[in-house]
Amino acid sequence: MTKGATPAQVALAWLLVQKPWIVPIPGTAKLEHLDANLGALEVELTAADMREIDESVSKHEVQGARSSEELLQATDVGARLGTSSVGGHGMSSLPRK
């Protein structure tokens, strides 16, 4: 894929088009990295781009848990207690479209 963008910009752009409740929060200690991250807002991914990325990602098997068991227990406690995400899907309280 040729977008004239950095891999980080493409990754952030990909995240931005996934679901409305997925909000990437990239961390940086340098202003030039912040500027580069903001450049992801200018990256326009086509349906063909999305297919190319998805096909590439699907070739790799995810290994291990996304977080430690302790951290997972603290994730969206409200959903398990019935105080948030009620009627939601995938731990999100946003309505399905």
Automatic annotation (TrEMBL):
UniProt GO MF annotations: oxidoreductase activity
Location of region: Disordered: 76-97
Any single GO CC term annotated in Swiss-Prot or TrEMBL for this entry: cytoplasm
Domain NADP-dependent oxidoreductase, residue spans: 3-56
Keyword line: Oxidoreductase
Record's keyword annotation contains Oxidoreductase: yes
Superkingdom, natural source: Bacteria
Pfam families from the UniProt entry: Aldo_ket_red
Full protein name: Aldo/keto reductase
Organism: Corallococcus carmarthensis
